[in-house]
Design goal:
single chain, about 400 residues, alpha/beta, FAD/NAD(P)-binding domain, seven-stranded mixed sheet, six-stranded mixed sheet, globular
């Protein structure tokens, strides 16, 4: 009986467990190592589109994902008095809300439950060194233990430390000039099943979204060319956030107050990852670690799922990892490059500096959301459930 090839995957978020699902299905022995002591259940809304939706359907978890929908019924643009200036319901042609809208933590939990019996999970450890030879990859973990595998795949996010071990500073982390803070706050009477978007002068945006856990997901973003904020301590980052929030209006006081006591504020510069190569010998990377497109595209989760499916499939199809990696990159890189091309004016147009710019954003949103425009959009739109490809072929492996 042929020995199963052993694969170590770094990261138990979305790309890692999806890769583990398919590799285990194709007969690989998979271990997923996660730095956190348990599943990281926090995070904001994600949506799964096109080819990603087709893959979760093949995995048998589409209905679980739809059942865990956040309950959001659409997006409203509001002014500082909470008056609605434009509304985009879920069933509209221009909707910002996906049918498969789900909290990151809920999706992580679904993926874990669908793989925990076939994939070995190791929590509370991370990779600190990698040594390759022709036939194996020796991995050193944070507890100084070592283990030998056939392949190593980094799937541990945009700030991947495993990527650095494999590629050093070769990949470019391209900051787009936007910072975002996300955190979960208590629900109040003003919160409804609508997501609410508020644009403030000074290139600032607040977004409050409902969830299916009885709380509200808050987001605050602002434009800045200062890259140093990413390297500050949590306390110093909160000081920056409070300074930027000051004078914004609308739910400013609420977000400021909740930030003081919230220990789960995630603050980061929005960046894309551009890597000239995704593989180095018997090791490689997928998902945000390899090609983060930024949340601005709305396609990060889909890229992670598609990339995992294709890599597992190519490894199952080819006799050598070199052939599999080359075939994978040929399929995946054009798709990634297309998605990473941000539309003109993003993110600046949505973050105007002046009161006049804010008025323009709300006016344009109102026009786009108007009945005549929505009626025209419906004539030319497809229902999301009918879309399966997103300009990339999904071969049927094995």
């Amino acid at each position: 009986m042929e020995r199963k090839k052993r694969v170590i995957v770094s990261g138990a978020s979305i790309a890692g467990p999806t890769l583990g699902f398919w590799l285990a299905k194709y007969g690989f022995d998979v271990t997923i190592v996660e730095r956190s002591k348990a599943l990281r259940m926090g995070g904001q809304n994600l949506d799964i589109r096109g080819a990603g939706r087709a893959i979760v359907r093949m995995m048998g978890i589409e209905q679980d994902i739809l059942a865990a929908n956040t309950g959001e019924i659409g997006l409203q643009f509001v002014n500082r008095n909470n008056e609605v200036k434009a509304a985009f319901p879920t069933d509209g042609a221009s909707s910002f809300t996906s049918e498969a809208e789900i909290l990151r933590g809920d999706l992580v939990n679904i993926l874990y439950n669908s793989t925990k019996n076939e994939v070995k999970y190791v929590f509370g450890k991370y990779i600190t060194a990698v040594q390759q030879d022709t036939n194996t990859v020796e991995v050193t973990f944070s507890d100084d233990t070592k283990e030998v595998f056939d392949l190593l795949i980094a799937a541990d996010g945009v700030r991947s430390t495993t990527r650095t071990l494999l590629f050093g500073e070769e990949p470019e982390i391209k900051f787009v000039g936007l910072y975002n803070a996300w955190y979960t706050i208590p629900k109040t009477a003003r919160d409804t099943r609508w997501a609410r978007w508020y644009t403030a002068p000074g290139s600032r945006v607040m977004l409050l979204r409902p969830d299916n856990h009885g709380t509200t997901r808050a987001s605050f973003s602002f434009l800045s060319d200062d890259k140093s904020y990413q390297n500050l301590s949590n306390d110093d980052q909160k000081k920056i956030l409070k300074d930027k929030l000051s004078g914004a209006g609308w739910e400013e006081a609420r977000l400021m107050k909740e930030m003081e006591t919230n220990d789960d504020v995630y603050f980061d510069g929005i960046s894309q990852v551009h890597a000239p190569r995704w593989f180095n010998g018997r090791a490689g990377m997928i998902g945000d670690a390899a090609y983060c497109p930024t949340p601005l595209t709305g396609m990060g989760t889909t890229l992670a799922i598609v990339g995992a499916y294709l890599l597992a499939g190519e490894l199952s199809r080819h006799a050598t990892h070199e052939e599999a990696f080359a075939a994978y990159e040929k399929r995946m890189r054009p798709f990634v490059e297309k998605i990473q091309k941000l539309p003109p004016g993003v993110p600046w147009l949505a973050h105007p500096k002046s009161k006049f710019g804010v008025a323009v954003v709300n006016t344009v949103a109102g026009i786009v959301a108007s009945r005549p425009i929505k009626a025209i959009g419906k004539l030319f739109s497809k229902k999301e459930k009918d879309v399966t490809k997103d300009d990339i072929e999904l071969p049927e492996y094995k």
